[in-house]
Structure formats: structure tokens, C-alpha cells
Design goal:
Blueprint (H helix, E strand, L loop, with lengths): L10 H23 L1 H32 L3 H31 L5 H30 L7 H4 L4 H14 L2 H29 L16 H16 L1
Helix pairs in contact: 1-4, 2-3, 2-4, 4-6
Length: 228
Amino acid sequence: MDFSSLPDLGARDVFDLVIVGIVLISGLFAFFRGFIHETLSMMGWVGAGLCALYGYPVARPYVRDLIPSELIADLATGVGLFLISFLIFSFISGRIGRAVQNSGLDSLDSTLGFVFGLLRGGLIACIGFLALSWLLPATSQPDWVRDARTRPVLEEGAFLLMRAMPNEIFDTTAEEIARAQRDAEINDQTYRQLLGPEPKGAGPKPLNGYTRPSRDDLDRLIEATTNE
């Protein structure tokens, strides 16, 4: 088989293929598992995520009172809320799944599952793009991300996700990112000073005696005094 006629794939094309692949794989996976099973499973994850998202600002101050380290306290708050909520939703979803598993609507269940899987894959891709945008602003992103054909769709999906999130999440994230940037700048300056300290006497040396304009003025003053 001759592959010489195939077009060369650049980084932008690979990025687009990865996004499309995530959506299609999610759709096929849901097609074989069925809509009911996938919906109930997704409900557990989404429900746990929402509980952790909206409960995080409320529970965080109480956990920080118990744990000295703010970082560990914040991680424990988010992970704890998610796990507890996920176990509760999984129990409820399991009870519902056992009640509807003998419905006999296999074809419809698979078709709806495929559509559901496509939507889920798009959601995963948008969440990944949103995380990338938080870490790297648009001006700092590589060209193959800024010029990707799938970027407009990802931006629209990320915008919808941002509107659904509470403002406290963005305020906290922005503060932590700004603090991390300040710490990184301070550490970089300290590192440079340790590697290459300014040698003593490296600054401009003071001039000995009078400067040239001062000497000229002094000569004119002496001449004027002599003439008198």
C-alpha cells in the first residue's frame, strides 16, 4: 500500500483528530453499553461533581479549621465531597437500573446511548479545553491550538460550562494563580541572584577630582580674577 499520496498531518490536524476521536470513542462506548446504563452512570458522576462544586465554598472554611495546611484542607474538601456524593448517587442509580433493565427496548436503548455518548465526549473535550485555557491564556497557547478547526466549538462549550459554575470558583482560582505567579517571580529573582551575584564595585565608579565642565568654569573664574 502506497502512503506517499497521503497528506502530511501537522500538529493542528492531530489536535483536531484527537478531539474528534474522543467524541467518537465515547459515542461507540455508549452505543454498546446502552443509554440507560450510561445515563445512570453519568448521573452519578455529574451529581457528585455538582455537589462537590457547590458545596466546596461552604465546607472549605470548616475543613480549614480542622486541617492546618490550606492546600491539604482544600484537597480534602473537594475529594471528600465528591466521593461521598458519588457513593450516594451510585446506590440510587443501581436501584433504578435494576428496575428498568428488563424493559426490552434494546435497539432504542443503543441508539440513544450513541447520541448520549457523543454529547458526553464533547463535554469531556470542552472541560479539557477549559482547563487548558485556565493554565495557558490564549496569547500563550501554541499556534496549533489557536488555529484548530475545532476551537470555535470548544470555546462555545467552555463558555457554557463557565456560566454554569459559581463565581466563587473563578475568584479562588484567579487568586491562587496570581499568588503562584508572584511566588514564581520571587523564586526566579532569588535564583538569578544566587547564580550570578553582582560583583563588588561593578557599578559606575565615582569620578576623581573635578569634571570637565567644572574645570572650564574654574579656569574662566581664575582668568577673570587675574585680569582684574
